[in-house]
Amino acid sequence: MNGILNWILWLPIIGAVVAIAIPNVKDNVVRWITLCTTSIVLVLTVVLYLKFDTSTAAMQFVVKVPWIEQFHINYHLGIDGITMLMTFLNALLFFICTLSSWTVEKNVKAYFALLLMLQSSVFGVFFSLDFFLFYVYWEVMLLPMFFLIGIWGGENREYAAIKFFLYTFFGSIFMLVGIIALYYASGKGVDSFSILAHQGGKYVNETVSIFGHTFSFEHLFFWFMFLGFAIKVPVFPFHTWLPHAHVQAPTAVSVILAGVLLKMGTYGFLRIAFPIFPQAAVHFSSIIAWLGLISVIYGAFCAMAQDDMKKLIAYSSVSHMGFVMLGLSAMTTQGMNGAVLQMFNHGTSTAMMFLLVGILYERSHHRWIVKPDGSKGYGGLSTKLPKYTVVFIIGMFASLGLPGLSGFISEALIFLGIYQKFTTITVIAVVGLLIGAAYLLWMFKRMFFGEVNPETEEYDDMNAREVFYMLPLCVCVVVFGIFPSPLLNVMKASVGQLVDLMAKF
Amino acid sequence: MEYTVGSIAPIFLSPVIAFVINAFLGRKLPRQGDWLATLSIFISFIYSARIFGDFVFGNFATDFFIHKTFTWFDLNHAATIFKVDMGVYIDNMTAIMLLMVSGVAFLIHLFSTWYMDHDEKHGRFFVFLPLFTSAMLGLVLSDNLFSLFIFWEIMGFCSYSLIGIYNQKEKAGDASLKAFMTTRVGDVFLLLGIVALWMFLGSVNYVDIYAAIAEGKFAGQTVLGISFATFTALCIFLGAMGKSAQFPLHVWLPDAMMGPTPGSALIHAATMVTAGVWVSLRMYPLMVLGDITWFIAVVGAITAFGAATVATVQTDIKAVLAYSTLSQLGYMIMGVGVGSYNAAFMHLITHACFKACLFLSAGSIIHSVHEQEMPKLGGLRKYLPYTHFAMMACTLAIAGIPFFSGFVSKDRILGDALYYGFMSGQNPLLAIVPILGFAAAGLTAFYMFRMMFLTFYGENRTHDNHGHGHGHKDAHGHEAHGHEIHHEHLDVRQNVPLLILAVFTLGFWFCGTLTGQSFGKVFGAKTEWFKVLVEAPVVEKFVDHKREDFSRVDTREKTHLEHAHYHHQTGYAGPNPDEHKLHSAHTIGAIASIFIAFAGVFLAFLMYIKGSVKPWASKFPGITKTLENKYGFDEFYIDILIKKGLLGLNRGLAWIDMGIYDRYVVDGMAFVNRVLYKSAKWFDNVVVDAIGVDGTGVAVNLFNLVLRIVQSGKIQFYFIMLIMVLASYVWTLNI
């Protein structure tokens, strides 16, 4: 059973290699190879979920092989409850994205190979328990993204791709410095690259001297790590790459970007920044909370001003990930669990929204809610596309946190968590809930109500393939909205361990 | 009667099942599943009736309740315990409410099968209608604020869907958006209040909140500089204001009539708007503790009066009813504020019956005549005798004519308000509450009879529509034909629901005894069952409350406490009301409200039947204009607050974000980098190369290489490189 993580991690690479290696392959074959790979991976993660022991917070399915022995670098994989959810989300979204990318015609072979490599590298980030490995995957992940946006993106794709790359790279350099600092701080011993070995507040009393000034080791390098992860989340004021990247990226890449890549940032807080620098995290938690709050409100306000559907959803991601940051900064059982649950729920609901935007884009070839000339971009969609409307309503209401759908429970838990620590912030954050409903419903009103536009008249409703890949997300959003326990039970031991750790500082 | 899951759950679950079936298979079912929805509500009604019967006839006691819980999910780990419990809490109030909601909703469903026949939205209507009803039933059954909030929001979603059901109409979209967003303003505060209570008490169960109040846990607690009790009470009441459409969050309700008329009946009568009153009643002890009852009373009074004034100038029959709903909700909220707990709840019930009937009657008229503008109706008494009969009964009830239900409940609220405003020694400014209340009572009688007279009496004007009514569309999008109106026959689906509801406009149902025997047995001469059974929660008796697990058959212990002990809700709801003064306030109030009601009716009679008094609209054009503009709230909210304020702010922020911050700050850093890299390159080429060491520029050149590869599209090369790197990992690992 221990090898299962290896399989999940390397199967996409095998799929990619197979797809590339076959000469003169038909496009459809590549698509089917990718679909087979992603579905096997999905099945494997379901097996993983079933085998997962929910009673322990310890790492499970651990694989540890020496890699670069002179530096004590290991190929060290393992998952706990938090990563279990992220693994499932990643497998599910890539499976769906393969189906949604069926219509990609440009350089199909490269596209799907890159997609598979992206999947593997995201798995790698979540599985890695070795800093070096983690960093390798963190960086490797940028490359497929860079090309996917830069080649298959919209008009302004190169700008967006480079911006995405440099922005994230900028953050990860700080992270790298942090990793190196930890390597030296831990005495270059056997565990110097082990993420787990650094956890637990070992560096509380360490200091570091730079240019003659003495800093607390924790406080300084917490911010280094923070920068690396905050850019990924993205937390205000490091968010401006996101609208560009989303607007330019092809549908599937937007889905992956919003669905799982952003979660890598918050995952970094959960796995690295918080448990390794707990004292600093507690010390600076109010700053994190305020940044989260600003993300929530600012993202929502900016979203409301957008005339481009995709940009609107992109800003809504900033807002929703702000809720995750709020939950994390609370460092309470409710807040942390809510944050991790929100990571999953935002993954499914935002994926739905981006897929829906993509489906519409394939028909209309534009994304204007209101065209630049002031006329309506769409109109009367609900009359013309009934199935699409139903799915859109489910996705939209899940996003805005309607009880009975998934987003609500996580937001409620986050509010419960944050209230204990930061009452003022909670009171202001409710404005985010209000505006969060406003921009989505206003968009819906402008696109779906009213007389059918002459252009809209020609659109077809969702076809069988589109319905097929939207279905699992609809099920997730509804079922986990009513029965959140399957998700909460998996993660609560791991999250609880972190909460208990933070409570000591 | 033993209470198990099986005897309670169907109340809530059967409409849910109907919703699920209709949502997935509705189109394939005969009549698109409308019968299924109706049947499911009937099942709810039967189960509710069992509970009602048991509570009212079997356990005639104020302190009898059922409380069962189960754990929805938990976050327990190590030593930390955090459970989210759900459960049902049924007391007399719940039992009465369940019967009302399921009964009225059943009749509305039955009526809708007639009304929505041949409507293109027939199927979709019967998807949301049962969901709506189930959410309300769930809300009523809830034993805690959190599950109340869940159903509260689901109801918001259902109303959104029902109001916007005619999706080709732009206005339907506006109205549904407005309804959802306006109530959402209240909702977020409600959530905030719930979160605050939950984190403070560790539970938002009603009984835990009551117990905490009794134990004085709130004493001295503050949040953000104000008393904790005031903060939470205010948050919860703000939620109630949104849902029950109280000033200044009332703007959504009049627009909510964009949906089909039976949908309006459900929203305005049995569900949704009563939810706000319901939560105010449930959290009444908190409202008192937080000392915001004066605020509640004033908000209610303003709403009651303001809406009544607007109703006097409306010409659309549904608009009159919508404003009358606002006004009556104002009475209920006012009742909560002045401590008239029992009467506020009774008004909720009586109002639900007559308002549902009024809306269904309006639906009957609109469907028969295809016209809803009152100036184009008239003389319909001849054509629609049953509708006329039912509507007249309800109008008498809402106008507060003696012997009708509205009189019983409204008069009690007004009597309490009179005591509250003039005799209880409150702040004299609060005299505004009874003054506005009585004024609204007169206006109610006037505008309701104005509506009756314009619709059913005088000359029939529907034929006049033939000329200028051409091209006019009514709520269904049908062309108004001005065709011959068919004489109404007694129809099970069209007017029998109206007549059944009309029966309940009689006052004796609410102030008399139901079965003299069982009432007499327990309380002797005290015969007003409603007054006896419903009373403000006495928090002290919840201190040692035991709840039961949902799966177990209950083993309840009946403890009939001394009735006198809990009568009059004293000892708790502020200072003991002076019995004598209260009594005289009620006597004065009753006489005054009868007089005022008849005055209103008489004025309407003079203006619209006799014609001896000209309608005042022409005399006071300024006031009329203001009223027709609904005091300008819509313009203020939409044009100024939202379009200029919020959207302006949003556009400004978005422009700063992309136009300034991203373009200059973020890209500016990239630009600085580029300058550095250019100079490094120059340094590299000119200085380093000259020396012969090729070092510093490597990183820069690498990036340059990446760019060149992308731009020239030589991805394959990069690809192979990546694969090789990855393959080398695999190779080194030997896995």
Task: Give an overview in words.
The complex is a heterodimer of chains A (505) and B (735). Chain A is mainly α and 505 residues long. Chain A has a domain at 284-505. Chain A contains 21 helices and 4 strands. Chain A has helices at 4-21, 27-51, 81-100, 108-127, 131-140, 142-152, 157-185, 195-198, 217-232, 241-248, 251-276, 278-283, 285-304, 309-330, 333-364, 381-384, 386-399, 406-421, 423-448, 464-482, 485-503; strands at residues 60-68, 73-79, 207-210, 213-216. In chain A, the strands form 2 sheets. Chain A has a two-stranded antiparallel sheet with strand order 1-2. A two-stranded antiparallel sheet of chain A has the order 3-4. The mean pLDDT of chain A is 90. Chain B is mainly alpha-helical and 735 residues long. Among the domains of chain B are: 292-511 and 578-628, no CATH class; 662-733, no CATH class. In chain B, 67% of the residues lie in helices and 3% in strands. In chain B, the strands form 2 sheets. A 3-stranded mixed β-sheet of chain B has the order 2-1-5. In chain B, β3 (222-223) and β4 form a beta hairpin. Mean pLDDT of chain B is 80; it is low at 466-482, 515-526 and 553-575. Chains A and B meet through α1, α4, α6, α7 and α10 of A and β1, α5, α6, α27 and α28 of B.
SSE blueprint:
The complex is a heterodimer of chains A (505) and B (735).
Chain A: H1 4-21, H2 27-51, E1 60-68, E2 73-79, H3 81-100, H4 108-127, H5 131-140, H6 142-152, H7 157-185, H8 195-198, E3 207-210, E4 213-216, H9 217-232, H10 241-248, H11 251-276, H12 278-283, H13 285-304, H14 309-330, H15 333-364, H16 381-384, H17 386-399, H18 406-421, H19 423-448, H20 464-482, H21 485-503
Antiparallel strand pairs in A: 1-2, 3-4
Helix pairs in contact in A: 1-2, 1-4, 2-3, 2-4, 3-4, 3-11, 3-15, 3-20, 3-21, 4-5, 4-6, 4-11, 5-7, 6-7, 7-9, 7-10, 9-11, 10-14, 11-14, 11-15, 13-14, 13-19, 14-15, 14-18, 14-19, 15-17, 15-18, 15-20, 15-21, 17-19, 17-20, 18-19, 18-20
Chain B: H1 5-25, H2 34-58, E1 66-74, E2 83-90, H3 92-115, H4 122-141, H5 145-163, H6 170-201, H7 206-214, E3 222-223, E4 226-227, H8 228-243, H9 252-255, H10 261-270, H11 273-282, H12 284-289, H13 293-311, H14 317-337, H15 341-369, H16 385-399, H17 405-423, H18 432-456, H19 465-468, H20 496-503, H21 508-511, H22 516-523, H23 529-533, E5 548-549, H24 563-566, H25 579-610, H26 621-628, H27 633-691, H28 698-712, H29 715-733
Parallel strand pairs in B: 1-5
Antiparallel strand pairs in B: 1-2, 3-4
